[in-house]
């Protein structure tokens, strides 16, 4: 983006990147190391990175005790549904919010912010009551509904920002070329929105994947439990935990989001404005 | 299609839109409907109820009568020194985390937008904090800050800087900075991804044109990238600020508000008031007051930014 | 043209959302039970250690096999979220039938009317197994809010080799040290790079108030229906002694202040701390995590005027909204019979409240691995005034914990601590 960069500049860039990645990524190394450690090695005064006597016992325990496989499947179902629905709902709405200034739109955006601001703990009980009323308690559909509503504020705010970033002239140019509005949306707007949509889908997927409290109180049937709820069972009184199985389970719980993002991240660059316009 | 430089007939397009005003309005409502409907059901009612609770003496209990008390809660709240103290801590926390998060994330997003080697891998690693299950995050950071066997103190020990070893979460002066760092760590990926996505919208042509004009990298960043990114920056920083102000789960796991109340965030305060002591009415009043103050702060911020952008 | 297309797009999305709701409505949304068929009970358990989890599941499976007409569904909760989960499900009218929790927390729920009064639901046999002092911890306004079943006494776990090296003899299970002896021995065990004691004071209030009973420190006094916090010499004794160990004799580590019990383990196993005053359940970590060749011993509770401690037993309660209280009580009777209670206590490394269960457990384990000390400590556990006080949770979080943390960090004096605690009491106990 900054054109040619000197060799020194490049080296500095790599160093900075390395610094960032160590700061952000070291937990993965720690999870990996802990997941393979036997109980004795978890409480050393000088912890070592590489387990002295590596074991797979933690994985065995994690899976036999808590049926993490089924929980992961439940989570995957709920998270994918939330991600798809959030994007489907937010895309047209954010376009409307950004392109047509209306009182309703402003009110909606303001409301969305307000709903994020009020102490969440006070909203939990009424939401729970509503979902019970409409028969959505103890179902994955109820969870998906909450997650979509929950992700919408972010999705709307972000996507309308991205829509604003697309020069109106582009759309108008296209419609002058004889394209219908839907074609304009499909050919010009959505491709340009791709990075924003990726960010939104990722946000929605991960927040659903990691959400704990609603999954805990809304779903009663053990067979329907999601992954975070299953993982929490390795945590005990006063901050104690069965660290081995917890780390093993958490490692496996971290991977799907990373894989999801690995596939999506390409789209973070392909939607660049020039490319789309030149088509 | 053609590039935008060759498309000067904006005026004509603008004129052709005018008769469609009416249909636009219908279109807006139709476009907004699918998202407004669930929001209405699942957020408006609970929120209105929550706001109303702030004017009552609602308490936890089976078949408890609730009566309207008007401004009684707020009178009590004004004299609640503990709450205002925690509110100050909350502002410090939310501002600290949001600003650091934004600056660091912007730097990272710019790096990840370069044609560097291993860019894909780097991008994936950068979202690790986000992808990790929250249950394990708190435990992990406790182990990082552990005074005896923590990764941080162990690091200082190994490089021979034993003097820098501290009881990070237990010391009165380091506790708040320590949890702020955790907050920055936890929220950075999200901000980074959003900014990275935003950077894609910055037209390459503008950059190239600027580069041809001989503008320096900083100049181009300041006058091309930043303005184009402004809507996204405004949106993400406002949301980040709200989220940070509202989040207390991680801090609760790390310090439970201690030592000596140094990390008692206002949302944690409201949570305990509601869920631990059962004072729903008072907790809702705390919520109302916080909403009003934060909205006022945000309004100032948003108005300023929007004016700059226009 | 344009309009219809837009409408179609919007309509399609709307259908997607509404359809989701409809879909779910068709599915299994009801939590209403069938009118016929076996009674179904939901049991929310907090067992989390491998052995105790197994013990719980085994007992439930056995019950279900023997009682086809009363089926218990075992649901595993967790200690960190149990409170929020219960508040939400009680308020939402969706509580589990049987709830596992602890005495200090169920008082509020009982007073709010969410827990059934068990006094007439459980047998005299079970009542007789458990000391009145322990029953008192779960009795609020003459209503029994739960059956106490597991006790967590405070003992001292010590590094045997370091004791030997300092020439300190291990006291017998029924003859523990006095506080003076304990402090003197801690001093003997202190040298460069080694502290005699690590006081894990992450939750200082419970810890101090529990141990304060050693010196008859009550903190909460009720006269004529009014409760207030008073701090006299009896209340000051324990905090002062701990403070002395940290700052005067320097035999206790200041770094351990923010730690929970389990956080002190790396230092203990690494020889940095010689003794850990803490819960009997720490023995489990000793067995599972101590390095090879590490020798540990369980020392009896330390004695002040007495060895009395406040008991905060784990409890099993029945929800007031449960439709099958009688059947739930039947299950509790079975679940907590002496043999089963002993198995549950063994799984969690805690002390059973039942006398017979305790005897069985000592027989079962031969009193090894500190089970003799654990069994003996059961007699010390009783109710403390703070457990009965309305507003204790608020006083604890808002005033007592910050004040104690400041005192133990040497930021305020003992007198200032006393003032803050008393003033906090005035704010909360109105």
TrEMBL record, chain A:
The keyword Mitochondrion does not apply. PROSITE patterns: ABC_TM1 (PS50928). It is a multi-pass membrane protein. It is found in: Cell membrane. GO terms for cellular component: plasma membrane. Its main location: membrane. The keyword Nuclease does not apply. GO terms for biological process: transmembrane transport. Gene3D superfamilies: MetI-like. Keywords: Cell membrane, Membrane, Transmembrane, Transmembrane helix, Transport. InterPro entries: BP-dep_ABC_trans_perm (IPR050901), MetI-like (IPR000515), MetI-like_sf (IPR035906). The chain crosses the membrane at residues 12-32, 78-97, 109-131, 143-163, 184-206, 243-263. Residues 72-264 form the ABC transmembrane type-1 domain. Belongs to the binding-protein-dependent transport system permease family. This is Carbohydrate ABC transporter permease.
Automatic annotation (TrEMBL), chain B:
It is found in: Cell membrane. It is a multi-pass membrane protein. Its main location: membrane. This is Sugar ABC transporter permease. Keywords: Cell membrane, Membrane, Transmembrane, Transmembrane helix, Transport. The lineage of its organism: Bacteria, Bacillati, Actinomycetota, Actinomycetes, Micromonosporales. It comes from Micromonospora globbae. One of its GO terms (biological process) is transmembrane transport. CDD domains: TM_PBP2. InterPro entries: ABC_transporter_permease, MetI-like, MetI-like_sf. Gene3D superfamilies: MetI-like. Residues 87-301 form the ABC transmembrane type-1 domain. GO terms for cellular component: plasma membrane. The chain crosses the membrane at residues 27-48, 91-112, 124-144, 175-203, 280-302.
TrEMBL record, chain C:
Residues 1-24 form the signal peptide. Gene3D superfamilies: Periplasmic binding protein-like II. Keywords: Signal. The keyword Iron does not apply. It comes from the Bacteria. InterPro entries: Bact_solute-bd_prot1, SBP. This is Sugar ABC transporter substrate-binding protein. It comes from Micromonospora globbae.
